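Researcher: I'm preparing a figure for a lab meeting and need a structural model of a single chain. I don't have an experimental structure, so a prediction will have to do for now. The sequence is pasted below. Please return the structure as tokens so I can convert it later.
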Amino acid sequence: MDADLAEHGRAIIATAAEVAGELAGLRHALAPTRELWTGVGPDLDPADEWTIAVDGLLGADGVLGQISRALDTPWPALPSAGWSGAEPASPGA
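Model: Understood. Here is the structure written out token by token.
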């Protein structure tokens, strides 16, 4: 049974890393439009909302991080897929 839990934990981590990579790629593709997002939302701009959603799913304290802890599987540091700390794209990037 413990081997099954460890296997499931590894599968969750692998899938989360793949999702984080895909979201980081999407963030990069959307970077040229980031200035269009500023001030659009009533409280937070969409870039902030994106980061909160990504952290809520993939962060150490997010949904998958909590599942990982329940499976007693160490949660790795995943590549950032949020906008937090991301530099806006430079022209021609």
